[in-house]
Design brief:
The protein has six helices and eight strands. By secondary structure, the chain is α/β, with parallel strands linked by helices. It has one domain: Alpha/Beta hydrolase fold, catalytic domain (Rossmann fold, 3-Layer(aba) Sandwich). Helix 3 crosses helix 4. It starts with a strand and ends with a helix.
Length: 237
């Protein structure tokens, strides 16, 4: 079976997505929202890891309107510069509509239980938060999401479980922003927040400058427990 699927967009176009399938099916599905580097090996590896844990994992090309098939790393200044160009050109609201299109496809996928979650990293962490506020995904996980402090007015729309992983030394999320996020979500019964002392942005990105094996293992362990519990609970309901 091909590891690529095509997703029809709301406005009449279409875009590709990497898909990894578990051995046992039907299974819950996880939408993996990309970082600023596109659907690169790191994101495909995340999908493969989730498939090993029993989920259908799909990572869509959210930069397709700007440059389809973009695939960068964090290993050169030129790639970082291009990644930030893409980030600045990216339309967040349009990106959410594309993720909602992926959600729609997965809900009707023959091998899916119809229960769908979302995980995102960096830019994708912001998108995962917004999927919790603007869609009906059964569970969302945001890893070091950027700009969440400016989106707290949407928190009242969160109706399903959301888990946040916050790096306390995040170079892209200030201490003040972190405190606003924690305070703004503290009383929300749907939100579970984990804060990681001493860790920087992208601490789960294997091979990255700030990768921390111990922190990544802890965050991923919490994520898997959360996803299994929420999606299996949703299925039972």
């Amino acid at each position: 079976m091909s590891n690529t699927i095509i997703i029809p967009s709301k406005d009449g176009g279409s875009f590709s997505a990497y898909i990894a399938m578990p051995e046992k099916k039907p299974a819950p599905a996880i939408i993996v929202a990309q970082e600023i580097f596109g659907v690169n090996k790191g994101l495909r590896d995340k999908c493969d890891w989730l498939a090993e844990q029993g989920f259908i994992a799909v990572c869509p090309d959210l930069f397709w309107r700007i440059e389809p098939g973009i695939e960068l790393t964090d290993q050169s200044e030129a790639e970082w510069a291009r990644a930030f160009e893409l980030f600045n050109a990216f339309d967040i609201d349009q990106g959410i509509e594309d993720l909602r299109a992926v959600h729609h496809v997965l809900k009707g996928h023959a091998d899916c239980t119809s229960k769908v979650g979302c995980i995102g990293y960096c830019l994708g962490g912001k998108l995962a938060y917004l999927m919790a506020t603007r869609s009906t995904v059964e569970a969302s996980v945001s890893y070091y999401g950027v700009g969440l402090d400016a989106l707290l007015d949407e928190a009242g729309s969160i109706a399903n479980p959301l888990m946040l992983h916050i790096a306390e030394e995040d170079e892209f999320v200030s201490k003040d922003a972190q405190e606003k996020i924690k305070a703004g979500l503290a009383d929300n019964p749907h939100v579970t927040l984990h804060s990681y002392e001493g860790l920087n942005h992208a601490f789960t990105r294997v091979g990255g400058k700030h990768y921390d094996a111990q922190g990544a293992a802890l965050a991923d362990e919490r994520t898997l427990a959360f996803l299994h519990h929420t999606l299996e609970k949703a299925l039972a309901a």
